[in-house]
């Protein structure tokens, strides 16, 4: 049901309106056949599939509530404590820890797991389908394009992998949290990604360079049952290598980690999956009352080596036990007495190991390793008094072990370990046990010490050789070990001590076959060959690639797996994907690694863009910004049918690429508003060229003090790319390209000089065009989170744009597109010529929910209609639910507006982005935290939304269309970029028969208004691209108004679909002293970038006569029908003024036929032609008799043609009678010779 409200804001120029206030067939009924195995049926242009009600009910009973991981982002940029580079070598600058949580819990800061459960039911009831419309794309129509798109579903474009040239890492993919190798068949390995699901290879592994390397990965969790794509751990059942368990969620102490959805289980090596423990493993972590919510994660999963039915999970809330192979779970089971009480201590499980006692029982080791330092979001992370290693002598047969059955193994550890009092010197603990000598154990402690400066590095490595009874510190990072100053050496200073984020990177492993060799992950991979006493850096990710290694290993290590029977073969997982070595123990040279990322499509994108006419172009290109892996792009060549390699063009955390479509000016950006530009990059093939700074330099970067660019990790930008080329006011010219660009901080910035060859001039051209557009109420401590999330130009008018803010505002901005000379003041005066007119249409959030606005877009054909994509959950604004809203302004500057809720049957999950199909404006796409949805008719009160068939259940942060409207591109978190050819798009050379009609009065009078109705119709077959209506004002008239589908002339339409008409009414005033032509001629013409089938109907005109004005000058002629040669011929002209006005400067001109001789004129003109008569009164005539001679030997045309033209300087309402002609035939009839005069 629509909720409508009409309001009249106090809109004044330059003033912001104030605020008021988501394999084969499986016997599991919850797994339908995979895409392609369903029989396709056509329903009104959409191919749909639907799970039966019975199967649906069965699925609901067995499948978890969708994790809030989709609406909560992963441990964004590792939740560092300061806004400085973290020194990990990728140049990223992490945001404050509360940065992303506000995006999803504002305004209450709350989340309840039941909300996700309810949304899961809503989503499961939806139909998966393909959007309606004419599927015009056919590869045969675009033989020069290297792309092979598919009308039936999205095609992944990559990066697969990304070629990270900024840090010499070569081919990289997204973060790999865990890797395991099949113990029976080492050609099989599994990788768990951060948000991209589980990937499997059956061709592992090779050091051969790509493309000859045969290691190929495929994602195995793109099935309806698996709603959680963030994987923290994978374990293979030691009793049956076909059985796999995986822990969901992201246990790396990020502020806003992906939440758990349960334990995944496959009994057929990943071909099918079940989700277990949904009643126990909620996404929600029950933190402290009154603070931000936190999220559960199953960081560890193991199987009892003595009993396949015993499965143990380690989570953020301690240990859980299953005694029936994961079907049912008991927990949380605490290892200590400090989990409850007055000041409960956290129970984060960071280590979990099971050891066969040799008597049929299994002992269990658990490391409680809470990070140890609070953040604004995770305010209890400093409650680490339970941190330590605990041992359970035997796994029980059921239930939770008693707390007293656990032994704290703290002999030799720092004083106070595990005594219930928060520790000031260490946090996270990683645990490793030698598989060959299980009494030998190692533990790594993360440092919290600030003196010496080792905070978040390794405090030390401890070893036990008696199953944990006693421990000895072996390696240190503070010089306390005798004879050593530092035992954990990096290749560079930043990687000493493991680097400064061991709460995030840490993992410890003992090499099979040698209990003296251990590997420790941190910024880099560190190896000890002497029982943990000394560690050396073997990957050197932040510096120069080690001599002898094949590929430079990406920084931030998370995973390590050895191959059965060969401990020199090892896989490691990093923030840049998977790497492999076959000489893990080599010391000189260091181990040589090969990247295995060429078939992994798991890059984590923010915003991206595609080049113009993407599906038709011979050189289509795409670019985007990615977490941990900078900005990257590719220009397609060959015949790709799927994802390809991209190459990086900025370092750090990339956030955006924007592409100017005419001259290929490229922009990229990294964190906190760091914008760069290249004038040459996009025109190179392959893409290449340098980028230079392009951020505003007026008053400091993006305005300096008071402007929030330093608080916005991923700033939003937009280029106006839709204007008809070289049309007045379109913003796009052949010479300058599309030159208008926006940026959003807490104010809206604009440049109209984006392509200026001078970087200095271009930077200076940025000007703030508005004051603060936010509520300014989202402040956490000293940090202001009231900023703009997204900016977008209108499709049809470069002077109009919209912004959506983090604190729930939508503002429509008018009057853009002109160069400002200074910044609009942060606080407006009454008027300021540098300020555009920003109209706050939020309306006190009476209809629009007061939750973060993630995306804004306009109707493709109407700059007064816009859409808002709303984040968060309805429960936080119970009076204003919904996630997709449409606002309609009544006129330019939005004197009044109407909101409509267009959420329909969308599930209650954050909507990240919105995009209408410019070829079918009623078809709208929504990118959400659970994947991609669409509706074929946004115009109805409650639209029906569908899940896009075959699209992965990945978070969609950006949706873009190209100039030319051929393609929709989706940029995802953890599954790269995807593209789909839009319905009703012009493929190949667009063909459209445009016709224009013009209707108006036949008569009018001076001193009155006259109106003409001009209608453009596209008779198809394709959408007409970049349509221009021209209707020049007739001379002497004054243009009064242009109404209807056009508001100005010339009128530009980005696209007009097949069968669509556009009607415009044009009104003029006829002055009382009108002296123009009579009749008035109003002429309309239409043109486009498309090939026109019938150009003859591209123009239309109307004549309007003005009685009482003008002089109708008429000419007649008479001549004999025959005449002989050698005689004179006489013919007569009569010039008559039929009125009604006097005819002035009347003149008669005659065309003498070739071969004849002029003899004389008589009557009212006795001189040679032309004859002039001066002024003729109404009804007055002038007669001229002309004599010419025909020679006897005349050989010219016969009959002879005589013609003349009369003219006057006065207006002539009937010009068709201004000329006259006749003929005389030559004969030789002697009877009549005497009737003709002889030639003189």
TrEMBL record:
<dbReference type="InterPro" id="IPR047589">
    <property type="entry name" value="DUF11_rpt"/>
</dbReference>
<feature type="domain" description="DUF11">
    <location>
        <begin position="993"/>
        <end position="1103"/>
    </location>
</feature>
<keyword id="KW-0812">Transmembrane</keyword>
<dbReference type="InterPro" id="IPR013783">
    <property type="entry name" value="Ig-like_fold"/>
</dbReference>
<dbReference type="InterPro" id="IPR015943">
    <property type="entry name" value="WD40/YVTN_repeat-like_dom_sf"/>
</dbReference>
<feature type="domain" description="DUF11">
    <location>
        <begin position="1112"/>
        <end position="1223"/>
    </location>
</feature>
<feature type="transmembrane region" description="Helical">
    <location>
        <begin position="51"/>
        <end position="69"/>
    </location>
</feature>
<keyword id="KW-1133">Transmembrane helix</keyword>
<keyword id="KW-0472">Membrane</keyword>
<feature type="region of interest" description="Disordered">
    <location>
        <begin position="1"/>
        <end position="26"/>
    </location>
</feature>
<dbReference type="InterPro" id="IPR051172">
    <property type="entry name" value="Chlamydia_OmcB"/>
</dbReference>
<dbReference type="InterPro" id="IPR001434">
    <property type="entry name" value="OmcB-like_DUF11"/>
</dbReference>
<protein>
    <submittedName>
        <fullName>DUF11 domain-containing protein</fullName>
    </submittedName>
</protein>
<dbReference type="Pfam" id="PF01345">
    <property type="entry name" value="DUF11"/>
</dbReference>
């Amino acid at each position: 049901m629509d909720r409508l409200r009409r309001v009249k804001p106090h809109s004044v120029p330059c003033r912001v309106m104030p605020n008021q206030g988501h394999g084969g067939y499986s016997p599991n009924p919850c797994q339908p056949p995979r895409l392609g195995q369903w029989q396709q049926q056509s329903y009104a242009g959409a191919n749909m599939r639907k799970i039966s009600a019975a199967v649906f009910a069965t699925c609901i009973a067995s499948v978890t509530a969708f994790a809030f991981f989709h609406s909560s982002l992963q441990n964004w940029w590792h939740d560092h404590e300061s806004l400085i580079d973290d020194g990990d070598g990728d140049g990223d600058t992490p945001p404050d820890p509360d940065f992303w949580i506000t995006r999803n819990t504002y305004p209450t800061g709350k989340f309840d797991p039941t909300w996700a459960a309810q949304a899961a039911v809503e989503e499961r009831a939806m139909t998966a389908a393909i959007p309606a419309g004419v599927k015009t794309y056919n590869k045969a129509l675009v033989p020069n394009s290297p792309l092979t798109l598919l009308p039936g579903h999205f095609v992944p474009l990559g990066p697969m992998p990304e070629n990270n040239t900024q840090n010499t890492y070569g081919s990289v993919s997204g973060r790999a949290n865990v890797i395991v190798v099949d113990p029976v068949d080492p050609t099989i390995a599994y990788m768990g990604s951060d948000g991209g699901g589980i990937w499997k290879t059956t061709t592992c592994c090779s050091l051969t360079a790509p493309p000859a390397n045969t290691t190929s990965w495929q994602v195995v969790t793109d099935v309806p049952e698996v709603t959680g794509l963030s994987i923290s751990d994978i374990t293979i059942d030691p009793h049956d290598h076909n059985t796999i368990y995986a822990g969901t969620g992201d246990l790396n102490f990020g502020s806003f980690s992906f939440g758990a959805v349960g334990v995944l289980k496959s009994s057929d090596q990943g071909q099918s999956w079940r989700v277990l423990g949904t009643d126990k493993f909620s996404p929600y972590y029950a933190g402290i009352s009154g603070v931000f919510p936190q999220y559960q994660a199953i960081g560890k999963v193991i199987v009892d080596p003595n009993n396949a039915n015993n499965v143990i999970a380690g989570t953020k809330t301690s240990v859980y036990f299953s005694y029936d192979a994961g079907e049912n779970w008991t927990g949380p089971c605490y290892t200590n007495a400090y989990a409850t009480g007055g000041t409960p201590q956290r129970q984060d499980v960071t280590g979990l190991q099971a050891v066969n006692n040799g008597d049929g029982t299994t002992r269990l080791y658990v490391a409680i390793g809470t990070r140890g330092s609070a953040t604004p979001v995770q305010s209890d992370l400093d409650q680490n008094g339970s941190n330590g290693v605990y041992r359970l002598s035997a796994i029980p047969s059921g239930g939770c072990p008693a707390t007293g059955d656990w032994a704290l193994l703290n002999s030799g550890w720092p004083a106070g370990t595990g005594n219930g009092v928060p520790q000031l010197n260490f946090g996270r603990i990683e645990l490793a046990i030698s598989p060959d000598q299980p009494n030998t154990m190692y533990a790594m402690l993360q440092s919290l010490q600030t003196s010496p400066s080792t905070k978040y590095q390794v405090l030390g490595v401890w070893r036990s050789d008696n199953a944990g009874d006693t421990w000895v510190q072996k390696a240190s990072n503070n010089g306390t070990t005798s004879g050593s100053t530092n035992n954990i050496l990096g290749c560079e200073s930043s990687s000493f001590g493991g680097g400064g984020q061991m709460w995030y990177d840490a993992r410890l492993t003992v090499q099979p076959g040698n209990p003296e060799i251990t590997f420790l992950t941190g910024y880099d991979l560190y190896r000890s060959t002497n029982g943990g006493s000394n560690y050396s850096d073997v990957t050197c990710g932040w510096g120069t690639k080690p001599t002898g290694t094949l590929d430079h290993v990406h920084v931030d290590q998370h995973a390590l797996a050895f191959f059965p029977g060969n401990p020199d073969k090892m896989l490691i997982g990093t923030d840049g994907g998977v790497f492999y070595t076959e000489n893990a123990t080599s010391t000189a040279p260091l181990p040589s690694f090969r990247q295995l990322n060429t078939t992994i499509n798991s890059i984590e994108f923010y915003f991206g863009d595609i080049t113009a006419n993407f599906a038709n172009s011979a050189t289509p290109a795409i670019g985007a910004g990615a977490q941990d892996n900078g900005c990257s792009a590719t220009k397609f060549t060959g015949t790709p049918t799927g994802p390809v390699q991209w190459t990086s063009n900025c370092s750090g955390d990339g956030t955006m690429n924007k592409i100017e479509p005419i001259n290929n000016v490229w922009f990229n950006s990294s964190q906190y508003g760091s914008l760069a530009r290249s004038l040459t990059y996009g025109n190179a093939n392959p893409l290449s060229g340098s980028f230079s700074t392009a951020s505003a330099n007026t008053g400091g970067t993006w305005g300096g003090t008071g402007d929030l660019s330093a608080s916005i990790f991923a700033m939003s930008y937009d280029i106006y790319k839709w204007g008809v080329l070289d049309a007045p006011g379109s913003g796009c010219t052949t010479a300058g390209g599309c030159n208008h660009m926006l940026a959003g901080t807490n104010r809206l910035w604009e440049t109209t000089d984006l392509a200026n060859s001078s970087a200095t001039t271009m930077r200076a051209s940025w000007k703030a065009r508005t004051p603060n557009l936010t509520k300014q109420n989202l402040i956490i401590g000293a940090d202001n989170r009231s900023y703009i999330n997204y900016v977008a130009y209108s499709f049809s008018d470069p002077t109009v744009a919209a912004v959506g803010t983090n604190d729930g505002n939508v503002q429509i901005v008018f009057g853009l597109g002109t160069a400002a000379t200074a910044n609009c003041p942060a606080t407006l005066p009454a008027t300021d010529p540098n300020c555009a007119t920003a109209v706050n249409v939020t309306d006190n959030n009476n209809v629009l929910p007061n939750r973060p606005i993630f995306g804004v877009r306009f109707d493709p054909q109407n700059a007064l209609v816009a859409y808002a994509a709303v984040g968060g959950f309805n429960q936080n604004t119970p009076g204003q639910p919904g996630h997709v809203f449409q606002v309609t302004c009544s006129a330019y500057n939005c004197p009044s507006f109407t909101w409509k809720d267009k959420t329909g049957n969308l599930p209650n999950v954050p909507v990240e982005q919105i995009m209408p199909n410019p070829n079918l404006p009623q078809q709208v796409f929504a990118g959400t935290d659970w994947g991609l949805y669409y509706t074929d008719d946004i115009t109805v009160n409650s639209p029906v939304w569908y899940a896009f068939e075959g699209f992965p259940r990945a978070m969609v942060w950006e949706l873009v269309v190209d100039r030319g409207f051929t393609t929709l591109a989706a940029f995802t978190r953890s599954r790269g970029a995807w593209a789909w050819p839009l319905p009703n798009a012009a493929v190949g050379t667009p063909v459209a028969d445009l016709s224009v009609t013009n209707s108006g009065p036949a008569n009018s009078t001076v001193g009155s208004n006259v109106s003409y109705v001009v209608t453009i119709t596209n008779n198809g077959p394709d959408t007409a691209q970049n349509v221009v209506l021209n209707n020049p004002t007739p001379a002497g008239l004054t243009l009064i108004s242009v109404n209807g589908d056009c508001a100005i002339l010339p009128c530009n339409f980005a696209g007009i679909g097949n069968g669509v008409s556009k009607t415009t009414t044009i009104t003029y005033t006829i002055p009382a002293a009108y002296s123009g032509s009579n009749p008035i001629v109003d002429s309309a013409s239409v043109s486009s970038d498309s090939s026109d089938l019938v150009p003859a109907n591209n123009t239309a005109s109307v004549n309007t006569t003005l009685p009482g004005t003008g002089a109708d000058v008429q000419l007649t002629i008479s001549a004999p029908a025959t005449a002989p040669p050698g005689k004179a011929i006489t013919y007569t002209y009569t010039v008559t003024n039929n009125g009604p006005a006097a005819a002035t400067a009347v003149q008669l001109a005659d065309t003498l036929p070739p071969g004849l001789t002029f003899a004389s004129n008589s009557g009212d003109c006795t001189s040679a032609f032309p004859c002039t008569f001066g002024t003729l009164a109404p009804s007055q005539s002038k007669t001229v008799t002309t004599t010419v001679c025909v020679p006897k030997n005349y050989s010219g045309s016969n009959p002879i043609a005589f013609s003349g033209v009369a003219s006057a300087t006065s207006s002539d309402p009937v010009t068709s009678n201004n000329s006259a002609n006749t003929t005389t035939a030559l004969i030789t009839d002697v009877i009549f010779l005497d009737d003709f005069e002889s030639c003189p």
